[in-house]
Specification:
The protein is an alpha/beta fold. Helices cover 43% and strands 15% of the residues. It folds into two domains: 180 residues, D-Maltodextrin-Binding Protein, domain 2, CATH 3.40.190.10; 209 residues, Periplasmic binding protein-like II (D-Maltodextrin-Binding Protein, domain 2). The strands form two sheets. Strands 1, 2, 3, 6, 7, 8, 9, 10 and 11 form a nine-stranded mixed β-sheet that branches. Strand 4 and strand 5 form a beta hairpin. It starts with 24 loop residues before the first strand and ends with a helix. The N terminus is likely disordered.
């Protein structure tokens, strides 16, 4: 039985010819998004209905569990066929280890579906390895009623001095200024990363990676640690932040237990589903501002930190895995993500469907960004990324000096 083609899109399988299905094929897709899971299950069901003999199964693993288990899964005989990716150095390491399929032959088809900047983020040295689906931005999301209660103008948070003054004022009003999921460490690395970006400018990572100006021991990275410690000395986080996992921290924000959360726009969904009520904050009570600029910093307010989420296909997967991913990133299947505010799709033709003003703002910001930097813990590769996360929390907790933190990152970079 031949698989049904993608009607109306004129897309053929460039990488593999459509096979005659001698037996049923199961394609396993593994991802980390609790919020998007129901939507992606529905897309899989839509595909399964129109592709007899093929069953796509969508599986979810919590973020840290996924990172911990994936290396072992990729070496097993029971590895998933489609895996979630943030791109960057982690993807490069997986490619170099021989785990990931080369999708270059499929690129002409993918170019019809995905914005060029996103597609290029999943290419290495001109070879296409991944299929992106969304853009994200990390920003200071805030609870509008709590900010009003504290008498803090959100626009004042857009400078570092104004941000620190706002944190003090919120605390004086008896409100927890900042929610932090320090138990998973990566939420804290957003602060250190943005501080490096705001201080060092758009070439700061390239120079450090090249060993210029002291590498990661450059004063910019040390100063970023000092600014992070300056913030943490105000004790702005909720009690127990060092052991709080991300889902719980998102629920705290959704329950109105803190005014600010430096997080990606996925917070809009996770704050709802992890809140005590299951409803979270109404979206009209949430807004965001860009991370603060610093005096004499080389970075711009229009420089953004975030991601381009995507998927990779593991070596030896059946051709149906790629066929499903082409179906997955069609405008017809992604327009619900846009219209219902799940995320800002990287799919051509979906931006017109974005109704959520916050998601629309994220889409505009990333499109207009003067520098969109991938999350440091992904960009720098798995071994260095883990150290960046560890260092960020250790500095904030007073367990490591900024100088020691910078030296630890440099040591990890040298040893990678």
């Amino acid at each position: 039985m031949m698989r049904t083609s993608l009607v109306g899109l004129g897309l053929g399988l460039a990488l593999w010819a459509a096979p005659a299905a001698a037996e049923d094929v199961t394609v396993r897709m593994l991802h980390v998004s609790q919020t998007n899971h129901p939507l992606w299950q529905q897309i899989a069901e839509n595909y399964n209905k129109t592709h007899p003999g093929v069953k796509v199964v969508v599986e979810y693993l919590e973020n840290e569990a996924y990172k911990a288990k994936l290396p072992t899964l990729l070496q097993s005989e029971d590895k998933p066929h489609i895996i979630y990716s943030w791109g960057g150095g982690v993807m490069r390491a997986q490619v170099e280890a021989g785990y990931i399929e080369d999708l270059s032959a499929a690129r002409p088809d993918l170019e019809k579906l995905i914005f060029p900047a996103a597609l290029n983020a999943y290419a290495i040295d001109g070879v296409q390895y991944g299929i992106p689906y969304d853009f994200s931005q990390v920003a200071l999301f805030y609870n509008k009623p709590l900010m009003e209660k504290a008498g803090v103008d959100p626009k004042s948070l857009e400078t570092w001095d104004g941000f620190l003054a706002g944190v003090k004022k919120i605390k004086e009003a008896g409100i927890t200024p900042i929610i932090m999921g320090g138990g998973e460490k990566w939420p804290m690395h957003f602060y250190w990363s943005y501080l490096v970006m705001r201080l060092g400018g758009s070439d700061v990572l390239q120079k450090a990676e090249a060993g210029e100006d002291g590498g990661f021991n450059n004063p910019v990275f040390i100063e970023a640690g000092k600014r992070l410690k300056e913030l943490s000395d105000l004790e702005p986080f909720q009690e127990g932040w060092l052991s709080t996992l991300f889902p719980a921290s998102a629920g705290m924000f959704g329950d109105g237990k803190g005014a600010i959360d430096l997080m990606g726009n996925w917070l809009l969904g996770t704050q709802k589903e992890n809140s005590a009520s299951g409803e979270g904050l109404p979206l009209d009570q949430i807004d965001f501002v860009s991370f603060p600029t610093l005096p004499d910093g080389k970075g711009k307010a229009s420089d953004t930190l975030g991601g381009i989420g995507g998927f990779l296909i593991t070596k030896g997967s059946p051709p149906e895995a790629l066929d499903f991913m082409k179906f997955f990133v069609t405008p017809e299947e992604q327009k619900k993500a846009a219209s219902e505010g799940f995320y800002a799709p990287a799919v051509i033709g979906t931006d017109a469907f974005i109704e959520n003003p916050l998601i629309a703002a994220v889409s505009r910001n990333v499109a207009a960004s003067t520098w969109h930097q991938l999350f440091f813990d992904q960009d720098l590769g798995p071994s260095v990324g883990r150290v960046v996360n560890d260092v960020s929390v250790a500095i904030a907790a007073g367990e490591m000096t900024p100088e020691e933190g910078a030296a630890a990152v440099q040591e990890a970079w040298d040893a990678r």
